[in-house]
Write a structure and sequence with these properties.
The chain contains 1 helix and 11 strands. With 115 residues, the protein is mainly β.
């Protein structure tokens, strides 16, 4: 499995911005298998939902609630994926999880948006 380390969460006011980063590491075989990297989130009492994912070729899938506000990017050479979040809303408050190929998950980083 791939190890994922997330960073960048925190407390921000409505309308503010945050940038999340996730770095993947592991053995050469597992790292060579990485295709999809991305972010999901889970708010209290709600199921985990898609934020955004990006394939090695650059194809992006994005949740409807974050379109136009969040931007995902990755560096294939460094095995990192970033999430730039802008115009944050209280509904964006959640624990954000990094994923690789949907079978490796980070420990989560908390984002809290105050009204």
């Amino acid at each position: 499995q791939v190890r994922l380390v997330e960073s960048g969460g925190g407390l921000v006011q409505t309308g503010g911005s945050l940038r999340l980063s996730c770095a993947a590491s592991g053995n050469i075989f597992d790292m060579s298998r990485i295709n999809v990297m991305g972010w999901y989130r889970q708010a209290p009492g709600k199921p985990r939902e898609l934020v955004a994912t990006i394939t090695r070729a650059g194809s992006i899938d994005c949740g409807a609630s974050v379109k136009g506000r969040f931007t995902i990017s990755r560096d294939n050479a460094k095995n990192t994926v970033d999430l730039q979040m802008s115009n944050l809303k209280p509904d964006d408050t959640a624990v954000y999880y990094c994923t690789v190929n949907y079978d490796s998950w980070g420990q989560g980083t908390r984002v809290t948006v105050s009204s």
